[in-house]
Amino acid sequence: MKKISNIHDIKFSKDEIPLKSDSSNLFLEVMISISVFLFSVTLAGVLAINSMLSNWSDSILGALTVQIMPVNNVNKEKSIEETLIHQNKALEFLKTVDGIEKATPLDDKQLQRLLRPWLGDGIDIKDLPIPRLIDVKLVPHAQIDFMALAEKLAEISPLASLDSHKLWLSKLIQFADGLKNLALVALFLVLSISAGGIIYATKSSLGLHKQVISILHIMGAKDAYIAKQFARRTGYISFLGGLVGIAFAVPTIFAIAKLSEKIEGGIITEASLSWLSWSSILSLPLFSAIVAMMTAYVTVKKTLEKMM
Predict the structure, then answer these.
(1) By residue range, what is the domain housing residue 270?
(2) Same domain for 272 and 178
(3) pLDDT tens digits, residue range 90-139?
């Protein structure tokens, strides 16, 4: 039989501390499940808002609309003809402006589609004094003096007016930024509460196994070795809890997206999640396990240092 010359030569197995039987395991798993669920749904909201703001920037800030007011005349056909003449004048002018990539007049079908949410189906826009619209796409990062452009446009056609969308869009962006900041605060709170729960569960487990830990110390076990056992177990439980949380979160995210499709106007539908966003969300169980392991490891090390 081999004689042990030094107590530090003792080789320990990985299960000296019976952590599997801890009463705090269920608490930790349920808490992580709820935390990952809330974190996933909130993170999806933050990423969707970022996507929405990006789409607005590309599709709206990079464009403007020119409106041609209809000519008032007793003869409807003549009124439409004169309105189209003003539209063509404005269109020809816009094509010569530096910084404008493309100018496209909206036809009757497109105008009717825009008015459908307010007027419903079956409305013939030829019977109504509807302004004509020109959709203008700007060159990326173009520097345009909108005030000067509006003045020149008014000289070409007194019935034409310019809308750069910036006034009303800035209010929407402020609102979306406010929602995003609230969501980020919620993420921080969820993360903080989760860390607090892990610290509480770890300290409770340390108290339960205080005698075993004391024996291991006498036998030569280091604090780092004991902390690793707690970290491994906490990480495993957190990963399982994270899987449960993400299993409930994914259908919830799809359900919210389905409800948002019913909102008219296309503003909310600009929010979407890319594959990179989904990868971030689906990786949360692994992220929660890593955070839990680090938190448990540091908690055990700090606590044992105070005990010794």
Answers:
(1) 7-58+169-307
(2) yes
(3) 999 988 888 888 889 988 888 888 777 777 776 667 777 788 898 888 88
Among 114, 131, 164, give the residue marking a domain's end: 164
Under a CB-based contact definition with an 8 Å cutoff, are residues 237 and 283 in contact?
no
| 229 assigned to some structural domain | yes
Helix (H, G, I), strand (E, B) or coil at 60: coil
Q: Are residues 219 and 296 in the same domain?
A: yes
Block residue for tokens 């899987």: 243
What is the DSSP track for 246-300? HHHHHHHHHHHHHHHTTSTTSSGGG----HHHHHHHHTHHHHHHHHHHHHHHHHH
Q: Which amino acid is it at 223? A: D
- The label of the residue with tokens 């921080």 reads 188
**Tens digits of per-residue pLDDT, 1-52?**
333 344 344 444 455 666 676 777 888 889 999 999 999 999 998 888 888 7
CATH of the domain at 150: 3.30.70
- Give me the percent of the chain exceeding a pLDDT of 90: 18
183 in any annotated domain: yes
Of 42, 34, 44, residue with least CA distance to 248: 34
pLDDT at 41: 92
Give the C-alpha separation, 170 to 166, whole Å: 6
User: What is the C-alpha to C-alpha distance for residues 242 and 40, in angstroms, rounded to an integer?
Assistant: 10
Flag whether pLDDT at 58 surpasses 70.
no
The residue type of 160 is A
Q: Which of 134, 90, 89, 91 is nearest to 111 (CA)?
A: 134
How far apart are the C-alpha atoms of 202 and 24, rounded to whole Å?
8
Q: Are 71 and 86 in contact (CB under 8 A)?
A: yes
